[in-house]
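Slide 14.
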Amino acid sequence: MEQPKAQVTMRFHGALNDFLSPEHRHQAFRHALQGRPSVKDLIESLGPPHPEVDVVRVDGEAVDFTHRVQPGSSVEVYPASMDEAPGVRVGPPLQDTPRFVLDVGLGRLVGFLRMLGFDALWRNDFADDTLARLSHDEDRILLSRDIGVLKRSEVLRGYFPRSTDPAEQLVEVVRRYGLTSRMHPFSRCVACNAALTSAEPSEVAGRIPERVAERHSRFQQCPDCQRVYWAGTHHQRMQALVDRLRELEGAP
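Slide 15: predicted structure.
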């Protein structure tokens, strides 16, 4: 007679349901247990990458990712949040000054983050190994729409942008990491990520259009790539986006 398979009861909360198959979303469900997996391996086998997990409770007790799940257990998994929960979180605490590394598909998002003043690394040829290494070694938040790279064990901080629209991705990241109060708009080069410095008109002469030189007297320049910035129409559009993001402070 065939023995019944060992099972556990799983329940995922909030945004973690985005990673589940439709029949498992927003409800408790039974799941066949293979061996005695760690809670991290069990969670990721069902979809969610571990950097998006905040708290795990097994039979009502908070556990870490190394906890071995026993048959018959009830496992509840909660998404990362802004609420402080000392001694409970399975991931690292939020950084005072968040830094990012982004995968190749998020080239427009990286420009937005730099425009807000955040240190954000991106290249169009970053391999998955490089992304994971930079995230770990430099304590950077990995932003990627590749769930596989977010599941790599060396990645401690990471987020999967749900939207495919770069402006909406930015709103997601600002909300997730509470960036509104940490923004320093127009302080970083959107092209190469270096911190900008002030420049006199005489310093940028010959590197800007004549009509710009006639209308503007305040400039910034990148010490690395020598790009020059001024408050033109593009700046005004970006300022409108900054104002929209500042309205997120305290918004539900």
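Speaker note: The mean pLDDT is 91.
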